[in-house]
Amino acid sequence: MGKRSRQRQKNQTPGRDDRDNADWGTGYADIVKENKLFEHYYTELGLVPGGEFEQFMDAMREPLPATIRITGYKSHAKEILHCLKEKYFKDIQEVEIDGQKIEAPQPLCWYPDEQAWHTNMSRKIIRKSPLLEKFHQFLVSETESGNISRQEAVSMIPPLLLKIESHHKILDMCAAPGSKTAQLIEMLHSDMDVPFPEGFVIANDVDNKRCYLLVHQAKRLNSPCIMVVNHDATCIPTLQIESGGKKGSLFYDRILCDVPCSGDGTMRKNIDVWKKWTTREGGCVCAFVTTQEFMQLLQLRIAVRGVEQLAVGGRMVYSTCSLNPIEDEAVIAALLEKSEGNNHTHTHTHTHTLPGSCNLSNIFWTFFLLMTKEGHWFADWSEVPSHRRTQIRPTMFPPTEPEKLADMHLERCMRILPHHQNTGGFFVAVLVKKAPMPWNRRYPKLRKDVSSGSAAQTEGSPAASTPADAPRLTESAPVEEEEREGGGPEGDESAAKQDGVCGPPASKKMKLFGYKEDPFVFLTEEDPVFITIQSFYNLAPNFPKLNVLTRTHDGKKRNLYMVSKELRNVLLNNSERMKVINTGVKVWSRNSDGEEFGCPFRLAQEGIYTLQPYIRSRIIRVSVEDIKVLLTQENPYLSKLEDNAHAQAKKLVMGSIVLKYIPNPDNTEDPQCPIQLCGWRGKTSIRAFVPRNERFHYLRLLGVEVFREKQGVGKEGEKEGKEEPGKVAGEEEAAAAAAAVEKEAELDLENGDENASSEPKK
């Protein structure tokens, strides 16, 4: 600790300790939860049903319940749920603090399979009970392992409404910090027996630094079907893919359009909004939005670009955490009007129906009032004086024709008010594309890619990029294709192309966008690295060698990654169109010591579930007791394994191995999910190469009590005896994960999509 830090600690005022022991809202003691302008605006608007406004405001002032979500695509999800119910929730019901029983977490009744839970426990209460402290540490560790996500309840709704299937091509337009993106990935991997789903997720964000937070969130799920890109969502490029020997435009089956907004529905967790909320032309603004005087126009431009990229028959979900109709229904109405209503796009009939035994309430609004910061109200575009028409636009008001308004079916949108289900405020609408957009209608009919069922379309298809002579939008029109795609002169593009390489644009362009990324270089089937890998691991003949990539042109390949076949197609055909931040899952890491044993690459735990189906040797079947030994001891001797595993290990030469546990349905006391670990068979010992939080995760599944002291020292013990696991030598950790681990001691149960920040590559 530095001298200044010690001095600050010495001179710390008593108020600091009081804040540490405070309830929800810690750090906001000076902020009064009142905003007369906010109350006046929503009272006049009449958005809250009659007689409920006081309940609405009382709920807005209450702290938001903490919510967690179990990642549903992993086969371990049921085991984690069982662990939560049997090991923590049952005991929490018996806990008493200050003479009052603690209310155990409850499932969100509308989320499928009890995979989402909420609780009102505060940090103050947690610190008063050792059991609750252990529960908190469990959540922290499982979050870092990617098995649990802390996510606000209403934030979970948009991905559910997309109704994703494993073959869908998905675009998340404004993805950071990534909690919804994680849901999309989980839904793609609903069947764990399929290592490479046909579909993929392209997660985009305009902020370069936030893209690295997005990478951290996605990396926890270890999927080969996710790609993170960095573009302005209003002009995100149209990508090309190859199908049947011809190039065509990629159009998405599903698009999540969770746009930037004023965020006044988040007052329960972002308490600064109370102080900084105000009205301004184009909607409401607060400190969490960067000078968005034309917020609604930005939202509309993003939504229009999203619909342009949507395949005919595809589904787009538009959502905001704002309650303001100008940011919500007005955007949907303007979008439908631009697309000529039901002829091209329509709001879906069942947007208010969610899976589960209960549904969220549905509040919609078709009467928009706009209030300026001076307090002037406008109910119609005709009332706006000419000197204000440069800031206030017609799209901020509903259509004046009653028939046109009725045809839009804005009643199918869904607004969630905080006092109805004890949540944050939220708005969501589902749009289904029925035909190409009006400015594309001249062009030939869409050619379906029957072989893959994807949304690939030929360059001349109606949903392809808008040609220069096509009808254009006047306001919020998409920019010209060259600007949209960020492409330079053709000579520059062709010079940058190399076989099997997808890299970022030239370095002089990259400086405009942030940190320079290493290229993505796909290996050929004849690459020399496969010679030793193939023989050492006895890879299956159907192993997709062409899906393996590295991040360097020159020198030794340090790490090898895998992506799905469809993402490879996207990468190879769009190297100059998009800036890729990250993609692929690591499957092998170079190990110089391994060369003398026959293979210089050892298996990586991140990609073991993707890679293992293709490995036909170097596999040791282990039991529950074997895994306990491997995860709680640094370098156990081979003799510590049970007889069966010991005999298998003795037959293998030194080097990287797969430790595989297959559940026994007849023994329900043991975990009923498969477990696969990377390991190393030494001369006389054996070890597991598993990151610390994943060790804790697997030990909990095996019934081992795992907890940490406040100083960060880990302890693992069973009823009989305790053993301390050593550090996992040789495992590389991403900067984002390292930063997250450092913050674990400070982590609380407060809501928020951000689990940790990540450092970009410079």
Automatic annotation (TrEMBL):
<dbReference type="Pfam" id="PF01189">
    <property type="entry name" value="Methyltr_RsmB-F"/>
</dbReference>
<dbReference type="InterPro" id="IPR001678">
    <property type="entry name" value="MeTrfase_RsmB-F_NOP2_dom"/>
</dbReference>
<keyword id="KW-0808">Transferase</keyword>
<feature type="compositionally biased region" description="Polar residues">
    <location>
        <begin position="451"/>
        <end position="464"/>
    </location>
</feature>
<dbReference type="GO" id="GO:0030488">
    <property type="term" value="P:tRNA methylation"/>
</dbReference>
<dbReference type="Pfam" id="PF25378">
    <property type="entry name" value="PUA_NSUN2"/>
</dbReference>
<dbReference type="GO" id="GO:0000049">
    <property type="term" value="F:tRNA binding"/>
</dbReference>
<feature type="region of interest" description="Disordered">
    <location>
        <begin position="712"/>
        <end position="762"/>
    </location>
</feature>
<feature type="binding site">
    <location>
        <position position="232"/>
    </location>
    <ligand>
        <name>S-adenosyl-L-methionine</name>
    </ligand>
</feature>
<protein>
    <recommendedName>
        <fullName>tRNA (cytosine(34)-C(5))-methyltransferase</fullName>
        <ecNumber>2.1.1.203</ecNumber>
    </recommendedName>
</protein>
<dbReference type="GO" id="GO:0005576">
    <property type="term" value="C:extracellular region"/>
</dbReference>
<dbReference type="InterPro" id="IPR049560">
    <property type="entry name" value="MeTrfase_RsmB-F_NOP2_cat"/>
</dbReference>
<dbReference type="GO" id="GO:0005737">
    <property type="term" value="C:cytoplasm"/>
</dbReference>
<keyword id="KW-0820">tRNA-binding</keyword>
<feature type="active site" description="Nucleophile">
    <location>
        <position position="321"/>
    </location>
</feature>
<keyword id="KW-0694">RNA-binding</keyword>
<feature type="compositionally biased region" description="Basic and acidic residues">
    <location>
        <begin position="712"/>
        <end position="730"/>
    </location>
</feature>
<feature type="binding site">
    <location>
        <position position="258"/>
    </location>
    <ligand>
        <name>S-adenosyl-L-methionine</name>
    </ligand>
</feature>
<keyword id="KW-0489">Methyltransferase</keyword>
<keyword id="KW-0539">Nucleus</keyword>
<dbReference type="InterPro" id="IPR023270">
    <property type="entry name" value="RCMT_NCL1"/>
</dbReference>
<keyword id="KW-0949">S-adenosyl-L-methionine</keyword>
<feature type="binding site">
    <location>
        <begin position="174"/>
        <end position="180"/>
    </location>
    <ligand>
        <name>S-adenosyl-L-methionine</name>
    </ligand>
</feature>
<feature type="domain" description="SAM-dependent MTase RsmB/NOP-type">
    <location>
        <begin position="56"/>
        <end position="434"/>
    </location>
</feature>
<feature type="region of interest" description="Disordered">
    <location>
        <begin position="443"/>
        <end position="503"/>
    </location>
</feature>
<dbReference type="InterPro" id="IPR057286">
    <property type="entry name" value="PUA_NSUN2"/>
</dbReference>
<feature type="binding site">
    <location>
        <position position="205"/>
    </location>
    <ligand>
        <name>S-adenosyl-L-methionine</name>
    </ligand>
</feature>
<comment type="similarity">
    <text>Belongs to the class I-like SAM-binding methyltransferase superfamily. RsmB/NOP family.</text>
</comment>
<keyword id="KW-0819">tRNA processing</keyword>
<dbReference type="GO" id="GO:0016428">
    <property type="term" value="F:tRNA (cytidine-5-)-methyltransferase activity"/>
</dbReference>
<dbReference type="InterPro" id="IPR023267">
    <property type="entry name" value="RCMT"/>
</dbReference>
<feature type="region of interest" description="Disordered">
    <location>
        <begin position="1"/>
        <end position="25"/>
    </location>
</feature>
<dbReference type="InterPro" id="IPR029063">
    <property type="entry name" value="SAM-dependent_MTases_sf"/>
</dbReference>
<dbReference type="Pfam" id="PF25376">
    <property type="entry name" value="Pre-PUA_NSUN2"/>
</dbReference>
<dbReference type="GO" id="GO:0005634">
    <property type="term" value="C:nucleus"/>
</dbReference>
<dbReference type="InterPro" id="IPR057285">
    <property type="entry name" value="Pre-PUA_NSUN2"/>
</dbReference>
